[in-house]
Amino acid sequence: MDFHFMIDSLPKLISVIPMTIYISVVSVIVGFALAAIIAIIREKKIKVLSQIFAVLVSFVRGTPILVQLYVIYYGLPQFLYYLQNQGVNVKPGSLPHLVIAISAYSLNAAANLSETIRSAYHSVDKDQYQAALSVGMTPSLSMRRIVIPQLIPNLIPNFSNFFLDLIKDTALVYNIGIIEIMAKSNIIASFGFKYLETYLDALLLYLVICFVFGKILSLTETYVTRRVFSGKTHSVIKKTPQVDETEAKVGGN
Amino acid sequence: MPLLTVNQLDKTVDNNHILKNIDFQISKGEVIVVIGPSGSGKTTFISNLNFLNNADKGEMNFRDKKIDLSSPKKDDVLWVRRHIAMVFQNYNLFKNKTALENITEGLIHGQGKSRDEANQIALEELKNVGLSEKKDAYPSQLSGGQKQRIGIARATALKPDIILFDEPTSALDPELVGTVVQDMDHLAQQGQTMIVVTHLMSFAKKVATKVLFFADGAILESGTPDQIFNHPKEKRTKEFLSAIAEDR
C-alpha cells in the first residue's frame, strides 16, 4: 500500500469533481422537468401519450443505466444521421460525449422521478383538493396552492435517494470517454499499477460528495416540511407541539 | 319559491345504483337534515350539490339558473361552489395553511377579495367561533373540535346561500361535539340555509325544518321532525330510528 501515491493522486482526482457534479446536477434538473410532464400526462390519463410513457418508464426502470448509456451513445448519432438524410440541418459527427451522457442520465432520471412525483402526489389526501374546490378555487389553483406545496415534503426523501444514486452512477460515463472521477482514477492508476490506492481515493471522494449532498437534501427536507406544515423555519430539530384534545376544548371555548 | 331544486338526480358506480332519481328542493332559511343508514347515499347526494361528485343524470335549478348535473359547464361549477359551501366530516382544513389562511384562501382565490378584506372577514369569523387566538395555528396544532369549528368558519366566511354539512360531528370525540353543534345551532337561528347529513337526532329534532330519510339511494320518507321521529310511516324508518342510539 503506497500512501504517498494515494495522497499525491488526491488533488488530481479532486480536479475532476466538477465534471461529476455537472453531469449529475444538469441531468437531474432536465430529468425532473421531463418527469413532471410525464407525471402530469399519466395522472391526467391523456390518451395514447399516457400509455406510451407508461411503457417508456417501465422500460427505462427495468434496464441497467450502463446499457441505456451505450444505446444512446451508439443510437443518437445514427438517429441524427437519419435526420440529416431527411434534410434536417444537424451535425451528427460533432455530437459531444457530454451531451450523450447527459441525455442518457436525464432520460433515466425522467423515468424514475416521474414515479417519485406520482407517489408524492398520491400521498396527499384527495380531500385536500376537494376542499380547495369547495371554497371556489379553480382546479389549477387548488393544485398550485394546496396540493403541490403538500407533496413537496413527501417528494424530497425519494428524490434524495435517486440523486445520490445518480451521482454514483455517473462513474459509468468513463466508458464513453468522459473524464470524471472514475476515468481519472483509471488513468492515474495505470501509471505504476497503483489501482487499489487510486480507487480508495475515488471511494473517499464519492463518499464525501454523497455525504455533502445527502446532508443538504436532508436539511432541505426538514426545513420544507416544517415550513409547509407548521410555518416554522427557525429550528429544524424541534418537533411541532401537538395539542391535547381536552386542553384544546377548554382553550377553544 | 325554492332556492335550490334538484330533479331526477341519478348516479351509478360499478353497477351499484347509488342515487335513484332524487327530487329535492330547499327554500331560503330552511334547515334540512338528512338521516339514514351508512351507504344509503347521503354523502354522495350532498357532494353532488356542489359538484365534488358527478351525477349520471339530473338537473339543478339554483337561483333561477338551470344546470345539467351530468355535464355541467366549468363556469357553472365554479359559480355554484362560490355560493354553496361545504363542511366536511374529516374537517379537510388545508394542512399547509394557518387557521386564518384556511378561511382567507376561498375569499381571495375563490371570490377575488383583497387580502386585507379577506383577513378582516376571517378574523371576524374566528372571533365568532371563539378561536381568535388560534389564527396562526396550523391544523396539526389544533384539536378535532377546533378544526371543525374553523371548517365551519371557512364556510360561513364565504357568505354562501347554502352550507352543506357532511356528518360534521362524526369524527369528533363525544365531549367535543357540543361546541360544534352550538355553532351550527347559532347559524340556523341566524337564518342560514343548511343541508345537514348527521346522526345527531337531537340536533335534527331541535333545528330541522324538514328531515329526509335516505335508504338504498332514495329518499324513502320526508317530513317535519315530528312526523319523522314521532310518526314515521315507513317500516324501514322505524327500524332505523329504533336501532340508532340517541345522539351517539
From TrEMBL, chain A:
Keywords per UniProt: Amino-acid transport, Cell membrane, Membrane, Transmembrane, Transmembrane helix, Transport
Record field: transmembrane: 20-41, 53-75, 172-193, 199-217
Domain ABC transmembrane type-1: 17-217
Predominant location: membrane
Membrane topology, as annotated: Multi-pass membrane protein
Pfam families xrefs: BPD_transp_1
Superkingdom assignment: Bacteria
Gene Ontology annotations for the cellular component aspect, listed alphabetically: ATP-binding cassette (ABC) transporter complex
Localization in the cell: Cell membrane
KW Repressor (keyword) present: no
Gene Ontology molecular function terms on file: L-cystine transmembrane transporter activity
InterPro entries for this protein: AA_ABC_transptr_permease_3TM, ArtM/GltK/GlnP/TcyL/YhdX-like, MetI-like, MetI-like_sf
Transmembrane keyword on record: yes
Gene3D superfamilies in UniProt: MetI-like
PANTHER family, sorted: L-CYSTINE TRANSPORT SYSTEM PERMEASE PROTEIN TCYL (PTHR30614:SF0), MEMBRANE COMPONENT OF AMINO ACID ABC TRANSPORTER (PTHR30614)
Family of this protein: Belongs to the binding-protein-dependent transport system permease family.
Record-given protein name: ABC transporter permease
Species assigned in the record: Lentilactobacillus kefiri (Lactobacillus kefiri)
UniProtKB/TrEMBL annotation, chain B:
Keyword Cell membrane carried by entry: yes
Main location: membrane
A GO molecular-function annotation: ATP binding
Gene Ontology CC terms, in alphabetical order: plasma membrane
Keyword Zinc part of the UniProt annotation: no
Positions of the ABC transporter domain: 4-241
Membrane topology: Peripheral membrane protein
A Pfam match: ABC_tran
Keyword vocabulary terms for this entry: ATP-binding, Cell membrane, Membrane, Nucleotide-binding, Transport
Top-rank taxon: Bacteria
Protein's cellular compartments: Cell membrane
SMART domains hit by this protein: AAA
Name the UniProt record assigns to this protein: Arginine ABC transporter ATP-binding protein
Origin organism lineage: Bacteria, Bacillati, Bacillota, Bacilli, Lactobacillales
